[in-house]
Amino acid sequence: MGGRVLSPVLLVGAGTGEATCGILYLAGYLRRGGIEAFVRLYDGDETEAEVTRTFESLLRRVRPKLVGISLKWFHHVDRALLIARTVRRLDPSIRIVVGGNSASYWWKELSGYDSIDHIVLGDGEVPLLALCNGEEAPPNVVTRSPDGRPRRLPLEYVQRATNTDDIYYSHFNDIFLSQMDQHSFSGWVAPGKGCGENCLYCGGARGNQKADFGRAKPFLRAEENVRRDHQEIAGRTWQMRYDFAGSTAGFLSSTWAGVDLSRHCCTYFLWGVPRVELVAALAETFQRVYMVIDIGCFSEQQRLEQMGRGLLKPCAKDRELLEVIDACRKYPNLDIEISGIGGLPFASKATLAEELRLVERIIGLDCVVGYQRLEAQPGALVTQHPARFDMVTEAKTFAEFLDYFERREPGDVSVPMIRFRDAGLEAAVQHTSDRVDALAWKHRDTRKRVAIQGRTRLRNTAPWTQRFTLGEWLGSHRAPAKLAGEAVTVLRSVDGITMSCAPSVSPKRFSDPTLTQGEDGAILLAALAAFEHPTTVSSAVSKLGAKARLDPHSAREVIDHLVDGRFLQPA
User: Fold this and answer.
1) Dist CA 519 CA 378 (whole Å)
2) DSSP assignment of 489-537
3) Whole-angstrom Cα distance, residue 311 to residue 500?
4) Is residue 286 domain-shared with residue 431, that is, in the same domain?
5) What's the pTM?
6) Which UniProt keywords are given for this protein, alphabetically ordered (predicted)?
7) 172 domain residue, yes or no
8) Which residues, other chains included, contact 228 with Cβ-Cβ below 8 Å and sequence gap of 6+?
């Protein structure tokens, strides 16, 4: 490598939507190490042509010496390879690095692609900085030897509680390429890392953590550094999101010290039933809390069978779950979703009936149900050895997963599934799955629905409205120079849905799928302005007829759209 410093650096995610927050931790770490790092956090491209256009502009803007691609989730493998090919074609001099859980698991297969120079295994901060600084033997890194064969260096860098004092969010004012990127951040904070469980369906379970990251046990990060995360992002995000089993009320309260979160929302993905102290701490700290409680599956019999065989993390019995739901009722600002997987091993007629009964009971308590059928995850026990459970998988090898995802049409988010070999049992499982899905979505729709009549008084409840120039919002790499000064009004609903309106930018002059432009943008802003104070729907319809020249039917459609997005709510 010759000691050449590789800076600037561009870090991107391999999937569409918001990239993993891991690239934000990496970018801050590189910045503190003297490397000019940038992130492209949001990706809305669907076609290969759109990917090419985006990276042409990104590379012109950043002029990176190294592009890092985060391949955390296995269903993004085809997109990671597409991005790598695109960058290689546009500028062969750029060093291309991939990392993340799936990259670490599939390092042998990925190292065979000419468009990938290095693969970072496991934790990425120290290895990536070493690559950027031109070190000859960066730890955890797979490189090619002169004969073209991959050379894997040992996992010398393994993050633990004792060596992560330098891992925290920073430089949020510097790393984003646009305001849209920054405001796409959903507020993820990592209280800790790793997993100590071996759930049979999970590719990130304890065995793979040990093999891919060298980490045998999960750990909590230092309170001071998690507090730094909160301090860095609290003024830049509307919510905090967490996903870790080991956080206690005391630990999180310490990390919140000195940070006002009373107007923030919180989403917490729990791997088991929470202690009442944690529930109380969340409800008392945040304006609104949404807790997702994972119970493995909705059949207690099936749950206990898997736990008894060491194939599932500790999960609550039905009685314990219902007690927690009851205890949460005293917090009016807290909503609960109960999440489970259908079609797990050891299903039977009896377990399917149990699933349905518990789902109906949970919905009867007005808790949301999160439900999906068992999917194939690389490295998961049931994916690698489906025959042990009398099941079959739609993908097992790297080639099979890649082929599946390459065949998907744009916008298709399906994944390979695992099903029962017995046709009768599979049909019964699918029938129950369809019934649960129908119940769950009907309940979600009912909770969301607001009955609107002419006399209904509504108010603009968007808690956040800001104005930017087109250049600020989209970034100079996306906004045409001649339109960069045009105004964009950005609003966020109480549920975090973002709407960006550019009424002065005609789609004929410039079009961007993330914007509501021209007359459509003007109409939405006029509708919101009509409800600046509590106003009846019929009165607002009349105003929109006079100001926006909308007929009554069209005006009602616009109002209904804003109510569905929760930009307008009953006064």
Assistant:
1) 47
2) EEEE-TT--EEEEETTS-TTT---TT-EEHHHHHHHHHHHHHTSS-EEH
3) 46
4) yes
5) 0.95
6) Iron, Iron-sulfur, Metal-binding, S-adenosyl-L-methionine
7) no
8) 168, 169, 170
